[in-house]
Amino acid sequence: MKKTMIISTFAAFLFFGISCGNKTAKTDVPVETEQLAEGAYYTCPMHPEVQSEKPGDCPKCGMPLEIKEVSKTDTVPMIMPTDSIKK
What we know:
1 helix; alpha+beta; rod-shaped; 3-stranded antiparallel sheet; 9% strand
């Protein structure tokens, strides 16, 4: 009886030890190795005036900076119709 109890306890510890072990996903890519697209930068979601080329935290609120990618529509100049210009 005592031997069965010891073996059961050992098996339980072994099972929980294996199931709670170090599980690292292979999809985890460090942010530092991430390549930014041309024209992209890191910015704070609450303070868009804060911009950085490197990841980090916002100096104003401490939130993690997020990647902002500039799309082609962001760089198109606004063209005013010629009839709206006063002469």
